[in-house]
Description:
The protein is mostly helical. It has one domain. The chain has 8 helices and no strands. The chain has helices spanning 14-30, 37-52, 62-84, 91-102, 107-130, 137-156, 163-171, 174-205. The radius of gyration is 17 Å and the shape is globular. The termini are far apart. The relative contact order is 0.12.
Amino acid sequence: xxxxxxxxxxxxxxxxxxxxxxxxxxxxxxxxxxxxxxxxxxxxxxxxxxxxxxxxxxxxxxxxxxxxxxxxxxxxxxxxxxxxxxxxxxxxxxxxxxxxxxxxxxxxxxxxxxxxxxxxxxxxxxxxxxxxxxxxxxxxxxxxxxxxxxxxxxxxxxxxxxxxxxxxxxxxxxxxxxxxxxxxxxxxxxxxxxxxxxxxxxxxxx
Length: 206
């Protein structure tokens, strides 16, 4: 009997998160969900890259970064868990899941839909809940540089269905890479601003 759960309930440290990413991919493949793989693989790649920077001085506060990565990932895995259990999910995630089921878009679009859902739906909520304050902003923005350094690898691993798009990936990767990075950075910056709105309002009316 398969007892696997996408739930974030058991995520408590770096190793548990890495193992959960691996196990979740196996389940996505078993459940014949290839269109959920582009975002999953990219998210895992970026997460591992963030962890590789711990202890190197890249981040100002490693402990806060670990807490952030774990907390943020929980939103993703809980959305997957709700979806596979047939429960209600946030609108951005539901839209992504619906499009993946229709199987009518290029894989890079499914990747962007995952980015949109996780950043625009979850990121500001995560940062606000952690309440690290503005001292976390430098480390938060540092992730943009990690994404930039890994995006080419993430895009290159897309298994596009279209021969035309595969050729673009092989010969003109920058056509994907540059605009995609700009979109991600813009969304992350907006999410940061949104996460600080309540804090600023509280200071104004204190």
